[in-house]
Amino acid sequence: MQITGGWLDHPGTRAVCGMLTGAGHRALFVGGCVRDSLLDRPVGDIDIATDARPERVVALSRKAGIRAVPTGIDHGTVTLIAHDLAHEVTTFRADVETDGRHAVVRFSDDVATDAARRDFTMNALYATPEGEVVDPLGGLSDLRARRVRFVGDPAARIAEDHLRILRFFRFHAWYGDPAAGMDAEALAAIAAGSDGLSRLSRERIGAEMRKLLSAPDPAPAVAAMRSTGALMQLLPGADDRALAPLVHLEGDRPVSWIRRLAVLGGPGVADALRLSRAEAKALDTLIDGVGNGMSPGELGYRVGAEVAGDILLLRGALLKTPPTVRDFDLATKGARARFPVRPKDLMPRYKGAHLGERLRHLETRWIASGFALTRDQLCGEGDG
């Protein structure tokens, strides 16, 4: 079995592989670049596994004139930047000791040992620099069947790093076959070990949730999270029942993981996932918009057409009142509208607090008119 793709022939990738193999070491692509190539999906990060120890990788890179960054050298990882392309090169290794978050490793010369420490079989696929697939654990058949399967004992893999619980659901959302269901043994292990999620950093949890909710349809995976107790561990009070209707209503609209997060609800979400200030503000705007009673036109005027559209979708999913084309048109009309009255139009008749109250009153009348009333109609003969 061969993988193909222009990235294989990138001069930087050829240089890194040639540096290792030319010195008598193995260089095997591993993980996402192999998996996604086999699925004809775009390749992002390029990971390379090797029997060369990290110090040896650094020494060889200096000799070859390739920049080396010791991003995780204690765990065997060196990032090599060749022709402006980053390659994460990691020595074959095995986990000696784990605590659910971090691992102590020993280096190895054996690719099968390296494969045995990985999370899922579809991530334990390797390929030579020529593109020949190396499959120590039968991951190729799982990938073809869109089956997300832990390497070895699911409980043991989860105990090594509880983030693998979230990765399991995320990989199902992106790579799994919803019709085939999920591995019952894996779900049982997740249910038994979900309390370990509380030991993870909020940054790691937030990053995984962002990727999960950005999948084309994360609803089946999130429903499974709820059934195992994992969702409540992460977001107490969250409710995923409106997520599937929301995904349906979204249609061809661009995916927004914040919009999907908003439909889950639950208190303290921004803090639980360590959202940025901008993300937390966007989430609050969506949640407030669902229940503030504003018309589609006023929503568009207050928050813009895009955010108003998100709020209309959320209302449709949560309140079971799907928005109409007219609702979106009104939101767009409101976003384009400009209040025609300025403070100077009401002065000197109104001043200070009375001026602000008058402006708000006229703005309310203008919005209620569908943005139709003119400046003269609003101000009246005594105000202009």
UniProtKB/TrEMBL annotation:
Its cofactor is Mg(2+). Keywords: Magnesium, Metal-binding, Nucleotide-binding, Nucleotidyltransferase, RNA-binding, Transferase, tRNA processing. The keyword RNA-binding applies. Residues 29-149 form the Poly A polymerase head domain. InterPro entries: Bact_CCA-adding_enz_type3_sf, NT_sf, PolA_pol_head_dom, PolyA_RNA-bd. Pfam families: PolyA_pol, PolyA_pol_RNAbd. Residues 182-239 form the tRNA nucleotidyltransferase/poly(A) polymerase RNA and SrmB- binding domain. One of its GO terms (biological process) is tRNA processing. Belongs to the tRNA nucleotidyltransferase/poly(A) polymerase family. This is Poly(A) polymerase. It comes from Primorskyibacter flagellatus.
